[in-house]
Amino acid sequence: MQRPKLFLHINDRETEHAILSSDIARKFLLAKSSEFEPWVEQVKDSQTDMAIIEANDFTEHDLHTLKSASLHLHTEFIFLSRGEPNVFLDKFMKLGAGYHLRSPYEFKTVQTLVDDFYEDGATAQSNTKKIHSSSLNQFGHILGSSSCMLKLFRTLRKVANSDLNVLVMGESGAGKELIAQTLHDVGVRADGPFVALNCGAISPELIDSELFGHVKGAFTGAHKDHTGLFEQAKGGTLFLDEVTEMPIEHQVKLLRVLELGEFRPVGSNTAEYADVRIVAATNRDPSDAVADGILREDLYYRLAQIPVHVPPLRERSDDVIGLTEHFLAYRNAVEETNKSISQAALNRIVEHDWPGNVRELKHAVERAFVMADNVIEETHLTFVPLTEKITEENTVPTGIPLADIEREAILNTLEENKGSKKRTADQLGITVKTLYNKLEKYDQQEE
Ligand SMILES: Nc1ncnc2c1ncn2[C@@H]1O[C@H](COP(=O)(O)OP(=O)(O)OP(=O)(O)O)[C@@H](O)[C@H]1O
Fold first, then answer.
1. pLDDT score for 396
2. In this predicted structure, what is the pLDDT of residue 102?
3. Where is each Sigma-54 factor interaction domain found (predicted)?
4. What is the rounded CA–CA span in Å between residue 31 and residue 43?
5. Whose Cα sits closest to atom 28 in ligand 1?
6. Chain segment 189-232, per-residue pLDDT in tens
7. Tens digit of pLDDT for each residue in 69-96?
8. What is the pLDDT of residue 129?
9. pLDDT tens sequence across 413-435
10. How do residues 356-388 score in pLDDT, each as one tens digit?
C-alpha cells in the first residue's frame, strides 16, 4: 500500500517526539515544516493527505489561503491549540476541515485520529478491486476515489449512525441527494422510511400542512385528516432539499420542531413526537443566504450540526474518468451491449469543467451512448447547449422525438443557469414543481 503523506507543524517538542517515536512514523511519509516559510504556504504546496498543525495564531490570511486551495476538502487536519477563541479557525473547522484538539489534549487522542485515518485509507485501497464496473471506490450510493471524496466518505461513515442533523452543501448535480440517501441507508434508521421534500417546489400556503399534517376542518378545503411528512418519515429520515427556498416565516416553525423534538398538525392541540433524522441540502452558500435574509441563522446552526460539503466535479477531476467508465459500464449492462469510448473522447471529457457536475456528466455519457454504434467518439459528445437562443444558423432540430427535445431543452437550460431551478423554470415557462418532476423522471430513467 502506498504510504500516505503527513505534514507536521508542531512547536511542542514533547508532542513532536511522541509522534516521531510512535508507529505513525512507520505508516506515513512524514514532512516537517521548515521555519523559512509560513506553514500555510508549505501545507498548500505539499499535497499532503493529513496535517497536524499547532495553530495558536491561526489568522484570517491562513483561513483564506487554505480555503482558496480547497484544502478542507483534500487534507485531513488535526489542529492543536491552547484553546483560546479563534473565529478564523472556527470558520475553517465549520467547512469540515477535520479536528481541533484543545490543550490539555492527550497524545493518545492524536494517535487514535491518525490511526483511524490510516485504516480508512487502507480499506479504501483494498476496496478498489471489488468494484467491477470501474476503478472507483464506493460508499453507499456514492462513487469516488479522489482524496476529497475519501474524506467525505469518512465523515459520512462517522455521522451515519448518529441522529445529528446534517446540512449538505454543494452545487447542483454534485450528489447532495445521493448523500442524504446514503446517510439513511447505511445508518441505524435504514429500516425506516426516507422521505424527501423539495422546499423550493411547494406552494408557501401548503408548507405547514405538508410538513406537520392537518386535521379535518383545520381550514377551508381540509376535508379529511392529512398525514404530514414528519409523521410519514417516522423512524426514518426527512430530507429537506433546497432548504433555503423555504419561506422565512415558515422556517421558525421548523426550528421549533428541531428544538423541541415535537410538532403539532395544523388545527390539532396534540403535540406529536418528531422521531426523524433531518438531512437538509442547499446549493447556496448558507452564510450568504443568512446575510441575504432568506435563511434564519438559528435554523442554519440547528440544521448544520454536521456540515457536509460536496466538492464540485471540477475539484475532483481524478474522478471524472472513473465516473465516465461507471456510467458507460452501467448502460452496457442494462442494454446488454459492449460499447467503449475512444481516448480522444475521454480527453475531451477530462478537459470540460462540468458546471452541471455529476448530473451533467451522467447525461452527457448517456447521450453519447445512444448516439454511438460501438465506440463513443468526440463527435458523440454534446456540451454546447442545443437550446442556445435560436439564430439563423442555429435552428430547432427536426425529426427528433419531442420528449428528447424537451429533455435536452430542460437539461441544457439548467446547465446554462448553473443549476438554478427557479431561473430555468422561469425561462422555460413551467413551474418549479414541474421541473422537479421531470428531473426526477430523467434520473429514474437512467437508474
Ligand atoms: N458521486 C456520485 N456517484 C454516482 N452518481 C452520482 C454521484 N453524484 C451524483 N450522482 C448522480 O448525479 C445525479 C444528480 O445527483 P443528485 O440529485 O444527488 O445531485 P444534487 O446535488 O442533489 O442536485 P440538485 O441540487 O440539483 O438537487 C443523480 O443521477 C446521481 O445519481
1. 61
2. 83
3. 142-370
4. 10
5. 359
6. 988 999 999 998 888 888 899 999 999 988 888 889 999 999 99
7. 888 878 899 999 888 888 898 888 877 7
8. 30
9. 888 877 788 888 888 878 888 88
10. 899 999 999 998 998 888 899 999 998 754 444
5-127, what's its fold? Answer: Rossmann fold (3.40.50)
CA-wise closest residue to 78 among 51, 96, 57: 51
- Position 1 scores a pLDDT of 60
| Annotated domain spans of the chain | 5-127, 147-309, 313-446
Compute the distance between CA of residue 90 and CA of residue 43 in angstroms, rounded to an integer: 19
Report whether residue 362 contacts ligand 1, using a CB cutoff of 6 Å: yes
By C-alpha distance, which of 90, 81, 149 is closest to 110?
81
pLDDT top residue among 179 and 90: 179
CATH of domain 147-309: 3.40.50.300
Question: Closest Cα to atom 29, ligand 1: which residue?
Answer: 443
How far is the C-alpha of 326 from the C-alpha of 329, rounded, in Å? 5
User: How is residue 268 written as a grid cell?
Assistant: 390539532
Which atom of ligand 1 is least distant from the CA of 136? 3
Are 5-127 and 313-446 in the same CATH fold? no
Which of 151, 166, 359, 437 gets mutated to test ligand 1 (max ligand atoms within 8 A of its CB)? Answer: 359
Q: Is 257:274 a contact under the CB 8 Å cutoff? A: yes
**Grid coordinates belonging to 83:** 484553546
Query: Which CATH code for domain 313-446?
Result: 1.10.8.60
- Which of 168, 177, 421, 424, when mutated, tests ligand 1's pocket best, judged by the most ligand atoms within 8 Å of its CB? 177
pTM listed for this prediction: 0.70
Q: How far is CA 369 from CA 291, 343, 345, 383, 391, in A?
A: 44, 15, 12, 14, 28
Distance 212 CA to ligand 1 centre (A): 28
- Residue of minimum CA distance from atom 25 in ligand 1: 172
